[in-house]
TrEMBL record, chains A, B:
Record's protein name: DNA-binding LacI/PurR family transcriptional regulator
Pfam families on file: LacI, Peripla_BP_3
One term of GO molecular function: transcription cis-regulatory region binding
Source species of the chain: Actinomadura livida
Classification via CDD domains: HTH_LacI, PBP1_LacI
Length: 345, 345
DNA sequence: TCCCGGCTCGTTAGCGCAAACATTCGCGTG
DNA sequence: CACGCGAATGTTTGCGCTAACGAGCCGGGA
């Protein structure tokens, strides 16, 4: 025996399929069919069963269904710090897509990231019998964690780098950065400085690559850039370092928060934006249009990322082998008022 | 018969408890005990079982356990738009607290809120046999949705208003707003304008109440304030309206994003902050310290909210009846550079 | 010596559902 | 009017686990 019979909120025993069957005068199997394949049941019978379902406020026990079918209707998401704008938006859009297809989403939100934590997160979810897993962990080191997983786990890596043994959906950070830098060069800037994101982030390295590629394509040199930590504070500190240098006329910050700090440091130092220095960010957070001045930045379409990731995962669950496929979402340059022609041009 | 035997990633059948039992030379029941109540098994036997568990890479099937025990180890969270800073932070801290206690979190993220959507979200989760539910929906109308639920559902309403038939954990918006306004009055401001949040939000009405209470306590009048929509844009639009009025020396915006827009409008109109006008926000988003100028604001401790909500829910699941109890988390005024004595004082 | 109590482990019996197979029914056909 | 065939419904079985109880074994005390 097991399971102290759970009680309905009103104190009566929760109805099970057998109860519905009894009330409708059919077998439990017919009730099951009404719920899962209504077209196989005569309309008249179906109506009787549905009436009983409503009368008893019956709802199927998902655990029993999972046990019997092997499918749970739950997707797992392992994500790094969901208070950050990017991960939060991605997870949100995944959840929307999943809900539209009647999947529920279970989430594990990592506050620190290392090889072990990814594996633990995935394990936690597999322990809950999820049908498939998304990993939203835009870190280079996340790849190591993923490599230790069985390669045919139904898993999609969102925003992961190359060299991951799973299908990947990611924003083309490199192309976005190239667009940003080309925009600055086309305005007449001699060169463009770059404040990179944390070294371990795929997003950061992609943006740095794009910056470098655009500069080198234009025949400019691109030394190793300093790295911030995505925070406004790190942008501010970098800004203080470069504010005194009159040679600096354009800066590409790897995200909007750092750009905000940068703007502040430049203003404090008396350098005007975009008069003296042009600044470009990345993300297009909702506030970017109200930065001082409104920020030129690169918008990522997180909704698209979530939808594609979900579709891909659905394919994998359905058995479609899309190993190591990679889908790329193109970001878009949004020009506002923080960029302009350099003074004296 | 049922469930096409699921295969392990390496192609073999996934090990079940019986397999472990056979390898260890014990019964399945003993394996179960080793996993759930190790102290009831002789250390020597326990070691044999654990060895077999590792050898077969056995992991218990959660659906079967749920079916047998009636408990799932999953908590459901219904939240409004998790891309907003507040809800995202709250959900994040709930997930952290849950994970520490070996609970998994399933999430339903609502993009629009009405009486129906809350109920649907809760239904979805109940259909997944969650042990308990958190509703993070700081809307007045959410209360209506909650009232339609059976009152003894193990549910905790996070950030809900009064008059909800469930335990509530919430930030004391009113007290936070009072602190903000008293701070401005104590600097010598004759009065304080207020840009409220959307009418339907509990957070918004609480902050408005606090603003009014502080003003009236000081003998000032407090007319009905205009309401924004939390966005920087709405703060900007309000700022344009008031920028021309020299009587205005202090504004309390109901959140930081609106304060940002406000700051921008004031600057464009040539009014200095805090020289001409002082501004206070609410939230203390990570970027607030880098606004132009660094924003005086009210910090909410979302981590504390999440932890308390989780503890409360655990009590409810455990059968502790804490009906309609209300736990309040105190916010904290963070004074930065956007507030100062009014000019001419 | 025998008996009893405690510890360890096994046996039985479901939890609620759906897959596979069995059966019944209705109806058109020869 | 018997037959056959497909559609509608029923019966059986088992998914993997654990609650409840029962059996075996040991040692200590009468």
């Amino acid at each position: 025996m097991a399971a102290e019979s759970p009680e309905a909120p009103d104190g009566r025993r929760l109805a099970v399929m057998e109860d519905v069957a009894a009330m409708a005068g059919v077998s439990a199997m017919t009730v099951s069919r009404v719920l899962n394949a209504p077209e196989k049941v005569r309309p008249q019978t179906r109506a009787r069963v549905m009436a009983a379902v409503r009368a008893l406020d019956y709802r199927p026990n998902s655990a029993a269904r999972v046990l019997a079918t092997g499918r749970s209707g739950v997707l797992g998401v392992v994500s790094f710090d969901t208070t950050l704008y990017g991960p939060a938006s991605t997870v949100f859009s995944i959840e929307q897509a999943a809900r539209e297809h009647d999947y529920t989403v279970s989430i594990v939100s990592l506050s620190s990231l290392n090889r072990r934590s990814i594996g633990e997160g995935v394990e936690r979810l597999r322990g809950q019998s999820v049908d498939g897993i998304m990993v939203v962990a835009p870190h280079e080191s996340a790849a190591d964690g993923l490599k230790e997983l069985p390669a045919d786990t139904p898993l999609v890596a969102v925003g992961a780098g190359a060299d991951v043994p799973f299908p990947v959906v990611a924003v083309d950070h490199r192309a976005g950065a190239e667009r940003a830098v080309r925009h600055l060069l086309s305005l007449g800037h001699e060169s463009v400085l770059h404040l990179a994101g944390p070294a371990d982030w795929v997003d950061a390295s992609g943006r740095t690559d794009g910056w470098r590629a655009a500069l080198e394509a234009a025949g400019r040199s691109a030394p190793v850039p300093p790295a911030g930590d995505w925070s406004a504070r790190s942008g501010y500190e970098y800004g203080r370092q470069i504010a005194a240098d009159p040679e600096v006329t354009a800066v590409f910050a790897a995200n909007d928060a750092m750009a905000l700090g940068l703007l502040r440091a430049l203003r404090e130092a008396g350098r005007e934006v975009p008069g003296d220095v042009s600044v470009v960010g990345f993300d297009d957070v909702p506030e970017a249009a109200y930065f001082p001045p409104p920020l030129t930045t690169v918008r990522q379409n997180f909704g698209e990322v979530g939808r594609r990731a979900f579709d891909l995962l659905l394919d994998r669950i359905g058995g479609v082998s899309a190993e190591r496929s990679r889908r790329v979402v193109e970001p878009e340059l949004v020009v506002r008022e923080s960029t302009g022609v350099p003074r004296g041009t």
